[in-house]
Amino acid sequence: MPNTTTLEAASHLVEPFLTDLRALVDVDSGTYTPAGVAVVADYLQPRFAALGAAVERIAGDQMGPQLVSRLRGQGQGRVLLIGHMDTVFPEGEVARRPFRLENGRAYGPGVLDMKSGLLVGLYALRLLLDTGELPFSELTFICNSDEEIGSPESKPLIQRLARDVDAAFVLEPTADVAVLKVARKGVGTYRLDVTGVSSHAGVKPEDGRNAILELAHKIIAIQALNGALDGLTLNVGVTHGGERPNVVPDAAHALIDIRVASPDHTSRVEDMLRQIASDATIAGTIATITGHFAHQPFVQSERAKQLFALAAEEAAAFGLTLRGEATGGGSDGNTTAALGIPTLDGLGPAGGLAHNPGEYVEVASIAPRIALLASTLRRMGALS
Question: Are residues 9 and 118 in the same domain?
């Protein structure tokens, strides 16, 4: 089927796609609302089964369930699709702003990130099946429940299943229908704890060692590391210290978000943080740094470049000139890329304001994204 025909076929799927999108968006499925995530899984599970997939539902320990759907095909190439069912929004968000369509855009909590992405994967498979095609040897589709907090429960599952595939497609959204994500920064969260000495702030302030003041010195030093390595960003986003204004505080801490572009930079920035922790400005204070990188950097490999080139060829046939871009945000694509799996990310629809009450999807981007994924899956034999 030529790509122009694929795009036309995809356009006929937009109406049922929007019906499914409304149903998914109108469920509160924040990461910390596992019952809501389970409702999303309940909705998707029979739809994967209707495609002929074998569906496994894996209960979470503290998070919602994971869905793993498997399809056997007649072509070449083992493929992994990844999407997440959780959002960043709290319970009750749907009641405040349910799904709506307005001026060519779809709105609602998680509509962009990434309930529409889940449906792009589902509908691309439906499009292929409607034309009698399963152009891969095996396709595994993971719908996980905890991506918005770094995939702590689902990451081992993703790693295990990714080791057996030739390519991974991640259904995260994009700001432009002509853009795919080909690289992502590694994402780390660290905690800096400072211990001082408490004392009466009015009677014996000189006997105290102010942990908040020491933390302030260290925060300035940490923020000064921005740009010290190519692509390095750090943000002290949370601080806490003290209990009462008339007591010299003996404890304070800060939480730090760190993004690195190169795998080599993770250990280097950790060394910088340890040095800052060990250098006390106020004598008698002690600081410790703890944390880790939940996502290693996603660097585009040579085989990933080949995968992007295949997608770009397919997109060109229906008038899209694809661009590959890097981003500072992390995704499950960081996990697959770190294993050496050729990874293409940002395959969800285009839109904006993710993680924001104004989050939206451009309805006009839905059909091109369904067509792009379906067309690229047809090319897996050229990659394997």
Answer: yes
